[in-house]
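Incident log entry.

Two folding requests arrived from the same account within the same minute. Monitoring flagged them as a possible duplicate submission, but the sequences differ. Recording both here for audit purposes.

Request one:
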Amino acid sequence: MEHVEQVRFGDQLYAIIVRASFREPGIHFFSTPELSQQLAFMSHPQGKTIEPHRHNKVTREVHYTQEVLLIQKGKLQVDFYTVEETYLESRVLGAGDIILLCSGAHGFHVLEPLEMFEIKQGPYSGENDKTRFAEASPSEIRIKGPNL
C-alpha cells in the first residue's frame, strides 16, 4: 500500500509506519494477527453504524512490549537497532504519522518540538521493561524515506 512502510531488516519486521497521508475507505489492518499490538485505520461514511459490543475476557501471552506512537505535532527521528544493540538505520516521522514498533530495539531524537501519544501493553514495569544502551554516533546515522 502506498503511504505504508513495513520496516524490515532481513526477515524480521521491526516496525510499521503509516504516514498521515494514508486515506482509504473501509477498514485496513496493517499488523498481522501474530503481533501482540494491533494497528488498523478505519474510514466510514456518515451514517455508518457500528453495533454496540463488548470485548470478551481472553487470555493472551505477551513476551515483549510493542508500542504505537502517534505524532500529533513536530518531528521525531526513530533509530532502529538489533536486539544485540547494533545500529541499522533511521526514519523521520511528522505530524499525523503513526508507527507500530514490533521488534528489535529503538531510540529517538526529537527534531522539532514534539507532541505524541504512546500506546502499549500495560501495566508499565518501569526500568524492568527495558534495557538501555549507548546510541549510534551522529556520523553513523542513515535516514531512509521522507526526511519531512
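Request two (distinct sequence, not a duplicate):
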Amino acid sequence: MTQHHHSLPQGEVAFVGAGPGDPELLTLRALRLLTTAEVVLHDHLVPDDILALAPQARMVAVGKAGFGPSMKQDDINALIIDHAREGYRVVRLKSGDPGVFGRLDEETTALDAAGIAFHVTPGLTAASAAAASLGVSLTRRGRNSDLRLLTGHDVKGFAEQDWRALARPGAVAAIYMGKRAARFLQGRLMMHGADPQTPVTVVANAARPTERRLPATLSSLAADLDASHIDGPAVLLLGLAPRDAQTIRANRQEAL
C-alpha cells in the first residue's frame, strides 16, 4: 500500500463530532479531517449534507438508530479496528459531541486494547444548539450556577436522576433522548416538589431545516408532546422557555 501523506498518519483513527446537523456548525478541524478521510464510519443521525463533504471516502453506516435496529457495539469496534489496521485514514463521525452520550469510551477502550492511535475532535452538542435556537442562555447569573446534561434513558430503561436538585426553582437541565421518557420525568419531578409551571421546551432536529420547537410547562409536557407528533432526535430543555415566550410573560407581569 502506498504511504499516506495527509493529516492522519497511517492506521490512526479520528473521532469527529459532526455537531447538531448544520454543516456550518462543524469545526474547521472536523471539516479538514472529513476532506482527507479515506473511510468514514458514521452514525445514522449524521445528515447527508455533512457526509457529502467527504465524497472521496468510503461511507460505512454504523451506530444506533433510535429505537429501531442498531449495530452491536462490539461490531462497530471491530469495523473501526479493521479499517485502521488496513492503513486507512479513518474518521469515526458521531453526531453532536463524541463525548456527550456518544459511547466514545467504549470505542476508544477497544482501540487502546488493539494498540491503535486515535484523537478526538469535539463537536457542538445538541443542548448548545437548542438553546441558541431559542435565543437563551444555558446559564444565567442569579438563576442557575450549574447546568446538567442528562439522558432520559440508560441501559436499564428510564434513567434515575437527582430529582430533588432538578426540582429546585431555577434549575436548568438538557435532557437527551427524553421524548419517550417525558411522562416519567414529569412524574418524578413533580413528586419531588417541582413547580408544575416550570417551563420545558422541546427542540427537535436542532439546527436543521426540519427543526421544531415545542414550548410547554412541566404539567403539560407529556400531553403536549403526544399531541405534537414531533419526529427526530430531540432535547428537552428543563427550566428554559423561548425568548419570545419570556418577553410575553414579562409583559404580562408588568401589566398586572
